[in-house]
Amino acid sequence: MSKGQGMGIDGDQCAQGGEGQAWLWNRPVGECRATLILAHGAGAPMDSEFMQQMAERLAARGVAVLRFEFDYMAARRLDGKKRPPNPQAKLLEQWRAVHDRVRQQVAGPLAIGGKSMGGRMASLLADEQGADALVCLGYPFHAIGKPDKPRVAHLAELRTPALIVQGERDPMGDRPKVAGYTLSQTIQVHWLTAADHDLKPLKSSGRTHAQHLEAAADAVAAFLTR
């Protein structure tokens, strides 16, 4: 794997990405069995609590995680002003550049994916880029309140092995709604009981968010290192 592996995850290791932007690495202390490039969702940065906890949990399970920020989010970090996501073409362009750069730095399996929007963008180019695997955490099967406009056409033909970790009551794709979609046989969907888009369960379920994050990390690590 890349130089610096085994440095530990007691503090995120920073590396320069494209155009002077910083990347965040979480690396396993021991053997690295796979690498995952994990992109953030539309409204939260690469170091949000969700992204941080998932990266730490995966690194503890032998998966190195690289996080980066899309340009609109990196700009918000500089001046604090909220911006909408960049146009899809721009997001995909940046995803390609990050994947190509990381591919040059690591050996072994390299997966791409992300939280919500980040995962959706990864799914759009997984086949094109020849990614070894795809991981989506809370896939936005449709916009909130717009189940009649699904974002699934490309998922029916996906060739890349994929894992979608989804909450059963996700307002962007709950279990009954997703059951009606035609998905490629390469896609596995791992359902979390009574969980929402951030994988948080109802209190009445008897589950905690931490337990769901642990379950998600277990599923992702098993999928990537099988």
TrEMBL record:
This is Alpha/beta family hydrolase. One of its GO terms (molecular function) is hydrolase activity. InterPro entries: AB_hydrolase_fold, KANL3/Tex30_Abhydrolase, NSL3/Tex30. PANTHER family: TESTIS DEVELOPMENT PROTEIN PRTD (PTHR13136), TESTIS-EXPRESSED PROTEIN 30 (PTHR13136:SF11). Keywords: Hydrolase. Pfam families: Abhydrolase_11. Residues 33-224 form the KANL3/Tex30 alpha/beta hydrolase-like domain. SUPFAM superfamilies: alpha/beta-Hydrolases. The keyword NADP does not apply. It comes from the Bacteria.
